Amino acid sequence: MARIKELAAERPRWGYRWIHRLLVREGWQVNRKRVQRLHGEAGLAVRRRGKKQRSVASRPARAELTGPNERWALDFVHDSLSSGRQFRCLTVLGALQHEVVQE
After folding, report:
1. Sign of the C-alpha dihedral, residues 35, 37, 42, 46?
2. What does the pLDDT read at residue 69?
3. Span 79-99, pLDDT tens digits
4. CB neighbour list of residue 72: distance below 8 Å, 6 or more residues apart
5. Measured in Å, how far apart are the chain's first and last C-alpha atoms?
6. Nearest CA to 32 among 12, 4, 8?
7. What is the dihedral of CA 67, 69, 73, 77, to 10 degrees?
8. What is the helix (H) or strand (E) element at residue 22, kind and residue range?
9. Which residues, other chains included, contact 71 with Cβ-Cβ below 8 Å and sequence gap of 6+?
10. In angstroms, rounded to a whole number, what is the distance separating the alpha carbons of residues 87 and 78?
11. Where are the beta strands (DSSP E) in 4-102?
C-alpha cells in the first residue's frame, strides 16, 4: 500500500493499471485486481477530465440574401448498395432568392 501511494504521488495522472505494471517491473508479485482495490481504498482515483467549454460569444446575424447564388451549401452523402459496394455523392445546394408575398 505504501509503494502504491508513493508511485501515485510521483505520477498523479497514472491509474492503477500503470502502477501495477511498475510494481511488476520492480519485482512485486501482486495481482492487478488487488492493486485496483488498494488504489481505490486509498482514494487515489484519477480525476476525470471536464467537458470542453463552449464559447459564450454569440454569432453575428447573417446578412439577408439579396440575389441568387450568394450562399451555397456542400455536403457528402455516402451509402452502400445491396451488393456491398459503397458510393459517395457530393450534394450542392445553391440558395435561390425567392420573394415572400404578403397579403
Report:
1. positive
2. 74
3. 999 999 999 999 888 765 555
4. 92, 93, 94, 95
5. 81
6. 4
7. 140
8. helix 16-25
9. 65, 95
10. 6
11. 72-80, 86-94
